[in-house]
Amino acid sequence: MTNIWGFLMQTIEISIVALILLLLKKIFQDKLSPRWQYGVWSVLFLSLIIPVGFFPFALFPSLHVLLEAVKTIIEQSLHSSYIDIYLPIKNITSFPLVTGIPHSVTDFLFVFYVLGVLYHLIRYMHQYIQLKKIIFIYGQKPSDELFQKIQQIETKYHFPSCQALVLEGIPSAFVFGLFKPVFVLPKQDTLDEKIILHELLHLQYKDSLQCVIWSCLRCIHWCNPFLQYVFDQIHNDMESLCDQRVLEKLDGEQRRDYGRILLNMTNEKYPYAFGTTSLSNGAKNIKKRIEAIVRFKKYPQGMMIVSLCICLLLAPLSIGYFHSYTLIGNPYEHESFSYQLSLASARMMEYPTIAGAIDTYAKGIVSNDEQFLLSVLPQQDYHDFRSVLSQRPDSVVSTLTYYLYDVIHLEKINDHEYHAKLCFYNQNENIDVENNRVIAHYNIIPIQIKKERGWKVRQNGQVLTGDATHLRTFMNSEIYDIPIYKIISLPCQSGKVTVIVRNGYQVFGNDIMNTPSLHAFELRPQARFNSGYQYLEVIYQNHQSLHHQDEIEYISMNLKNLNNQDEDVHFEKHDNFSDYGLYYQSSSNEETFFFAKVENHTLDKEYRFQHISYYQEANSIRLPETYALQIDINGTTELIKINMEDGEWYES
């Protein structure tokens, strides 16, 4: 926590977790053992030490959005040094850190809060040091009779031995210390062994160390009265658990005696100090403990499993796993609080996948949705977001039936950056009857995708417009001669092979709207790429001598997808060349075969064929990175491996 808003978000969310736990404890008060009643606080402990906002989830996302909107409104005119007005509140630690000189009211409030934390920690440490001095200066060795009684109890219940001291003037026994705890007893003529048993159980389970941890966490939330009450309940549950452990080792009459001992302590002053445990914890709490003793029963071993399962089910409360952030509706009144809420919800969106970020940006462009675009806006553009958004491409239309856009030329720059081009088609096609072509208009937006809090998208160049000729329809995908991705030229023994590559990723079908029906009218962001294609146009030129060319009767080529460069290649056999005629081509998603008969020993200048690899409904679409091309000339074959990492970017 480095600012007052981070603390508010942390303490409010923890308070909600604590309230839920208190309600559950109330419901199951008589149904589950004190072990569960205390053990369930482990969920709160996790939420206390895990920074709220560290994960992209929230217990109540609307609460985070509300606080973010309030922060933005208040901080607009303050120029705080601890907070960036447009960056979402996010804690990287669960304890406060002052990172600079305060400049604003909210900065000084945070400094005041940090001083309060330090005051309470110093006060606790002072108490601890003072009590330690008193114990070791004025503490005396117990009498032989008392020492033997302690040893007998340790032997009977298999407790490790510990240092014991007698201190005059204390009302009841307690355990003091963190790593080498000391058993401190009052100076009395007789001391019931059940009191000794209670404190030795505290020693065995290191309850004094737990008390110190809870007290330090109490200091961090010193100004939250509700959590102060909760920490008191935690301490009471610890004592109730120790009572349960004592009663499990006693018989019927001894249990009643133990209750009478507690009853005699109801009027004594509560001697709690930092780093200690004590049998007494105040009259009101002792009365509740006596009532629990009356209801005492040994819980079956199976209840431990039930308690553990309940804690595991509640554990997501500690990281707010129930809901990720969602976009709140965007009204038109820019000065309204609702508008600030919509902007806050957009800034808090985190897209864990490249596909989700690109999809949101694309749908923001098509639908002219400011909130979609703001949710993927890089942090560097937040301060001038209105100017940046006003410069977005306009008049971009997509009228395709099955998908809104293609993501073409997706190129990895490094682990945190990709480049790509968004291609939108206007399917108000023109039909070139003379040349038997279908032409569609396109808009292409170059984009940069960078990893910040999730993936962010921004325009990375001038918008390209033009007309594209329809090349092929495959699996409902309309493939046009959009700008080329790469051109790869490879020499071979008989000539030269040129491969022209076009590729694209698509959001197909119902995922366009993220709804069960294509008849929905509202675009929803953050879909996934569920289809993709790689379109290859292979051009072969024979450069052999005229003598060799005169002997050529046919040329055939097989192109096949490979998983990697070293994969063994097995092509489908084609030997009925007499049935193929002058030209023949057959294709599948994995392999394409091309055949050309050479008549009168006259070669064409170029031999061309097309191959398309198409993937649909794949969780992680991976287009082939390697192909194998086999060229067969009159039965003599040669094999070429084509790596998609080769070649150059083609700038149209």
UniProtKB/TrEMBL annotation:
> Please, which domain of life does this record's source organism belong to?
Bacteria
Domain Peptidase M56 spans what residues?
7-293
Q: Which Pfam families match?
A: Peptidase_M56
Per UniProt, which keywords does this protein have?
Membrane, Transmembrane, Transmembrane helix
Q: Does the keyword Transmembrane apply?
A: yes
Q: Which residues cross the membrane?
A: 6-24, 36-59, 101-122, 303-322
What this protein is called in its record is Peptidase M56 domain-containing protein
